[in-house]
Design brief:
A six-stranded mixed β-sheet has the order 6-7-8-3-9-10, with helices on both faces. It has a four-stranded antiparallel β-sheet with strand order 2-1-4-5. Strands 12-15-11-16 form a four-stranded antiparallel β-sheet, with helices on one face. It folds into three domains: 219 residues, Rossmann fold (3-Layer(aba) Sandwich); 102 residues, Alpha-Beta Plaits, CATH 3.30.70; 102 residues, no CATH class. The protein is of the alpha+beta class. A hairpin with a 2-residue loop joins strand 9 and strand 10.
Length: 468
């Protein structure tokens, strides 16, 4: 129902979304996860047609978002993070208004409004003015307007943000009731919500997809080996030596602290929560209890045989269990590893640039497009200088598909070596490149004739004929 293929969106010279690809099948709920600034809201706005697409392709309910935007909107329900409501209207009147503009037939409109109000549990406030409602009720009214026309696809951006626990439970139940009949994208920072509602997750960072998989597969891939947690009463030195020699046990650890990785409700990486410190000194006291973490060979379930052996040794086994990484731990690990990799790549690029500068090799740099830049891309090598307008006109000019006029100047151009290395060597840019279109037109009117560029006397006639 939803296909995103290499979606790209630029704000200035920054890529908010870069080559983002994923899909949502019919009747599926997909969780879109990522830290703040990852590109989640930008992606959803491109899918809904709220933002133009700079690159790639998006298909919703079988229709291309760019080619058939109205067909997409007829089949799409969207609840943004900040719910847009006409707060001076009563709930029923507002839903009737949205049903009309959504194209709900008048014959069954009242019945549909009643169904949606009952589904979203807002029947008891149907005659109240929206501005008088609590935030939880406003959120449910926003959800009602998003599904009033029974869309095939629903996109929810932080549907439970700012709600109290009781309201969160109610909104989750509404979403679960919608599952199966609608394909949904759910963006949230509350990871237990993803566990409770979503079939699959798409984790993105810096506008790129890191993982697209089911929750079960993510949990299996969260650790390279199985982990067991034991609590045993007995001589700790003897117990540790016994566990280390057991088949399929790769490593025995004594946990020093209990650390839990998490993110906060706003999507920021939260500091690890550290519990009480555990005494790791080994003791031969048979009545002392100790905790052990075992790293075990994957797919080797040794819990039953190990438990029997510990009991036969006369030690007290109080706990043995498989440690499964939580979604929070998986999420934090993926984001942390990706940020470390990006930082390493940036450092490598900076080191390479520094080596090239020391060796006297040209270093390519870029600059943002200026207001007087009219061309999309110059087919020139870094450092190459175009001296005449005829030479410039002979270059092939490529236009980026899908770039809207508002972003027409969000381009970069090759500049060549640093200015301090090329001072006094580069030629000044010809006037037709530095002057704005308005300045050039005024100059032509004042002079009454075409200006002849330096070194271009031979091409004057051909240039004038081309302009005619």
């Amino acid at each position: 129902m939803i296909e995103a293929e290499k979606l790209t969106k630029y704000f200035g010279d920054r890529a908010a979304v870069r080559d983002l690809s994923f899909e949502v099948k019919k009747g599926e709920i997909v969780g879109l996860l990522g830290p703040n600034g990852a590109g989640k809201t930008t992606t959803m706005r491109m899918l809904t047609g709220y933002l133009p697409i700079d690159g790639g392709r998006a298909v919703v309910a079988g229709y291309d978002v760019v080619d058939k935007p109205m067909e997409v909107r007829r089949r799409l329900g969207y609840l943004p993070e900040t719910v847009p409501l006409y707060t001076e209207m009563p709930v029923r009147a507002y839903l009737d208004f949205t049903a009309k503009i959504r194209g709900v037939p008048s014959k069954g409109r009242k019945r549909r409004i009643e169904e949606v109000m009952e589904l979203c549990r807002i029947t008891d406030v149907s005659e109240k003015v929206i501005s008088k409602l609590s935030r939880g009720y406003k959120q449910r009214v926003g959800l009602a307007q998003a599904i009033i026309h029974n869309p095939q696809v629903i996109i929810l951006d932080e549907p439970t943000v700012g709600l109290d626990p009781r309201q969160i439970i109610e909104i989750r139940k509404v979403i679960r009731d919608l599952a199966g009949n609608h394909s949904m994208i759910l963006s949230t920072h509350i990871l237990p919500e993803v566990n409770a509602l979503c079939d699959r997750v798409v984790i993105i960072n810096r506008g790129r997809v890191l993982v697209e998989d089911t929750l079960a597969n993510l949990e299996r891939q969260g650790a390279s080996a199985e982990r067991l947690r034991l609590e045993v009463r007995g001589p700790q030195q003897a117990i540790q030596e016994f566990l280390a020699q057991w088949p399929n046990v790769l490593q025995v650890e004594r946990p020093t602290t209990q650390v839990t990785a998490s993110i906060d409700s706003q999507g920021n990486l939260a500091p690890a929560v550290t519990g009480e410190e555990v005494d790791t000194s080994l003791s031969n006291d048979p009545d002392k209890t100790a905790h052990f973490n075992l790293k075990v060979t994957p797919d080797a379930d040794i819990r039953e045989s190990l438990a029997n052996a510990i009991i036969q040794q006369g030690w007290g086994l109080r706990e043995i269990g498989l440690v499964v990484p939580t979604l929070e731990e998986i999420f934090v690990n993926l984001i942390t590893e990706d940020l470390a990799r990006l930082e390493e790549e940036n450092e490598t690029a900076e080191d390479l640039e520094e080596l090239e500068s020391e060796a006297g090799q040209p270093v390519s740099r870029i600059r943002p497009a200026q207001d007087d830049d009219e061309l999309d891309e110059l087919d020139t090598e870094p450092g190459e200088i175009v001296e005449t307008e005829a030479e410039l006109n002979s270059q092939e000019i490529g236009h980026r598909q899908g770039r809207n006029p508002a972003n027409a100047r969000q381009r970069v151009y090759p500049v060549g070596k640093a200015q301090e290395q090329t001072a006094g060597k580069r030629k000044a840019a010809p006037s037709f490149l530095t002057a704005s279109p308005k300045d050039r037109s005024s100059q032509e009117q004042d002079s009454g004739k075409e200006a002849i560029l330096p070194g271009a006397e031979k091409d004057q006639n051909s240039t004038e004929s081309e302009r005619e």
